[in-house]
Amino acid sequence: MNSALPFSYNTCLESGDFDEVQTFLNSRIDEREVKPLTSQGGSINRFTLQPLQKTFVFGACWGERVHVRSGALSTCHLVLPLNRTIRVCNINRTLGTNEILIMMPGSEADLIWDAGTSAIVITFDSETVQAWSGLKSESLLSGALRILCSSSRQARSLFSLLQCVASQHQINEGNVQPVMQQHWENLLIETLSDQLTDTIPAQIDILPLHLRRAVDWLKAHIEHPLNVSDLVKIAGCSRRSLETGFQQFIGCSPARYILQQKLELAHQRLQQAQGSVSDVVYQCGFNHLSHFTRLYKDYYGETPSQTLRQRTLVTRG
Asked: Global pTM?
């Protein structure tokens, strides 16, 4: 999907008042605490909506950098950034463009949205999901947080499905018929079926020993040039076993995981204004500025220079 906020025919709220935004969110989903982290003034927060029977698909765009927190969630929520990034503080992970955060009932939201971030937020009706899992004879996960990489089959399928929903919204000027709403809701739950139940693989903090060795070593050496062969040696297994393990337990290939970790490190340093873009490229083990810039923009929806410029402006302000 592109970075434009979808579902524009049903704009629920446009406001720069964060108290008003918090009241709006709390009236429609689980209670949230909303705290702006910058004070630019005049920035507008915008929310749109496409209901799918008992499932609500929101478009959300924050005008300023904002911290959004909740208590234990009562139902399943999904967050899908369309541009820029969202920091998932409770698992110390940055959610990149076209990745998907799944928050199961009992988990807590603890998210920092970059200014200007657009995303889709989906809230499922708990009874609907419970009824579906009962039909499948599978128990619903509780308290789990999970990130689907943009390259995963489920993520690609879900974004394709949401593109169809957004197109139907535009064609029908926001008046999607109930029978179609039911159809899209069923497809959404079906697409996420193995992520919502106990058949889902273990979280990244509960990895097999050989994968844990590889991940820990990678994070300790992330500033250096790395490749999959390095991880194979550290893990002490075959390349095929490593690839299979990463796909099963982490949701992406080892090469993709290395890249994500390096891009997240670069993003953090740019946000902290630690040197020039060229300095950060060198510090994070990238060899070519142009190649890094392309990868960074694909992942975060903006160039490294734009990230650095925003941080510099906030610091000066």
From this structure: 0.66
